[in-house]
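EI: anyone free to look at a 108-residue chain?
SC: sure, send it
EI:
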Amino acid sequence: MLAMMDCSFVAKSGKATFGVSQFWNGCASRVERGLEISVVGVVDVETEQGYTLSAEQTLAQSSLPEWSRMGHYLSHLEGVDPTCLVKSSISRSMEPMPRQTLSLEPSI
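SC: here you go
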């Protein structure tokens, strides 16, 4: 099992949508106006299947000026419990990931 985090860009031109800001659009290889969704999940490398654990809209920098974008990503990652995989029809063969503590302190 591998933990993963990925961000997806959604183009948006309106002015009334919450969270519209400048985000990286990987398809266009440039920063564009729109929305961003960050997804945290796990990948079962044996079955080559991924499972989403959490999805959040990335906030516009102007919404939380005291936070960096990286701080927002780390907060999202920190808030996900990797043991939340419940044995269901799609995850019967999967065992919960062992609980690990993420250190957000810079290593010196």
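EI: Residues 69-78 form the longest helix (10 residues).
SC: 👍
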